[in-house]
């Protein structure tokens, strides 16, 4: 349930997409690592908030309690801690597993690809964070997915907001998870979840509402830095200071046009500690609608400075920031677009079909195709002793093979091969 | 237990190896499919003989009993049956899982890659089978792994041997599994396992011994076709006839020099029905040893005409033949060779480091690197506001970045960039 086979046409499209993403990661100097699909269960527990119940657990393997990885971030943090690595820029493209209620029509599966880029290490503030946002901008631009916006916020600013609104610290994470739903529910519902389920006071909720509905750019950051309450909060001040620096760097990268400082962005995961961000595509069909409507998140990430320390026996921290590209949703978009265009993606790369026009020439085909393979040429033949020439040429047309190398009795006698362009029917003897 | 993380140097080497294998598969016109790492448990049961006990099972997912895939062949057969596909040439490179006792020093893991190429469809005999052997020959030659031999046999010949030696049909598969151990144990031990554990009569075992210790080429096939007992057995005769045809095709491919018709080859899996084969590397260190010693199997496969039918509700059969490349063992060999050569594999592809020789030039670096990225150039910079030039150049040397693009105050004033060749220290202003 919630998984799927990928036929060749899907794999071909997915490979094209993944290679665009990986190219970008390599352009930014990342190295690849690989980790097992299995992790010790205890490594995954307590890292994902409400997601923990979606972890796939295996049967006891003689005392080893294993689970399928839930994302690529926790395995990366474990890898850094186990190998005592304090500095690394890595990417990882692999499948992850979530025992979620699948919504396959909307591209939500229980097994799906993640494409992660992360920078680990103690560096000057906001330089790696800015690069992560640049990467999202490059990938979404390269793939020509239409207009998008990258929402940015900072967990420290959110926590500062909660603090000055009178929320006790023990309720920061539940409040965060509720705020994160603002992109799917109106404020009234978010507010009632805060007061009802999460037990915040109605006054606190109202005060939070005044902040988390704000979004803008540098001018909003400046305004909040002057906010009488927020400016008194150490965490919020730090977060806002860094946000200002981030916007300076993004201005140098020339990408602030697509960036929105959005106080409603919270992200569901427990492990974020600083900057968080999420990219959403904007619907363009309904251009009469005043505000562009988001069609869902296609990338997200943030800073998690405490996660590596959770895996280190001495609790040594390695600050990290990273981004995950939501390849499955992008894949669905590209697939629909390909269907609409009527373009047929080739699923093989065969350059030439080795064919014979008469019977009893299997040996000639086998000899020729073997020479072609040995010369590195992508070649096929039909697995029949005596196939009809028409059938052989039809196979070329059906699978997009551009050339046919034909050896008949005459060609054999003359020591030549007839090379036929399948589309134009032009032939040369060579 | 029995799994491992792959650091960047290993991923770089593995990607190089996988790309050689995939190139070969594409050269032969195969398309890629992808299937979930999870299969319904019932799909895997009864397909692997003694291997069944090594299947990784998951906890009950609300009535779904799942397991991790054990190989890529059974998922391929299920895919064909579910989609009613009767003809396909596909490759699949992915990880599989076996709860085996790990022997990591010898390259045996519980999670490992398989690289499979299979041809499904009703075709003229031995043409696809010959192509599978050609593929093994090409890959092992391309990778320059040293001398190798590809052992070939046919389950029908083996079954014929068992029949004429007086083994009851119910004991064919157990007898097969025991014969398969002849590459690791002497005949005496194999014989005693047959008589002891498998309950064959001593006379039957002795008669089997006379056959299964034979190996050779076309002349052996001819001799066995004349064998008074075997030639009376329908199955054996069919198998020997096809084996002769196979050798004719392999002669046209020019690869019989590396092929050995070996009656001891049995292969452990239940699902094979015809030709089976296995490639082993030959040890070259001890050249005084008379017979070359095998250092283990690096590829294997065979024909399985009944497997797809097991997944089809109406039992419709799709004949298949395929090969699996033992990438992990080959990887270990290449890794040892790389270590011995002292060659250092780069783990990133960065072309240029953007550097500054003075303080307060972070903005210049951010602007330049952003231009380079947008132009598709692989570029890095240090995540420091004011790094020392020496540190920046050392980073190039440590990671193999060939060029440094330097912007200092003078370059900024002149509107140029100084491009430095890290190895030769030559500089040009541009």
UniProtKB/TrEMBL annotation, chains A, B:
Signal peptide: none annotated. GO terms for molecular function: ATP binding; histidine-tRNA ligase activity; identical protein binding; RNA binding. GO terms for cellular component: cytosol; mitochondrion. PROSITE patterns: AA_TRNA_LIGASE_II. GO terms for biological process: histidyl-tRNA aminoacylation; mitochondrial translation. It is an enzyme of class 6 (ligase). Residues 1-357 form the Aminoacyl-transfer RNA synthetases class-II family profile domain. The keyword ATP-binding applies. Its EC number is 6.1.1.21. Keywords: Aminoacyl-tRNA synthetase, ATP-binding, Ligase, Nucleotide-binding, Protein biosynthesis. It catalyses: tRNA(His) + L-histidine + ATP = L-histidyl-tRNA(His) + AMP + diphosphate + H(+). L-histidine binds at residues 71-73, 98, 114, 118, 267, 271-272. Belongs to the class-II aminoacyl-tRNA synthetase family. NCBIfam families: hisS. This is histidine--tRNA ligase. It comes from Thryothorus ludovicianus. The gene is Hars_1.
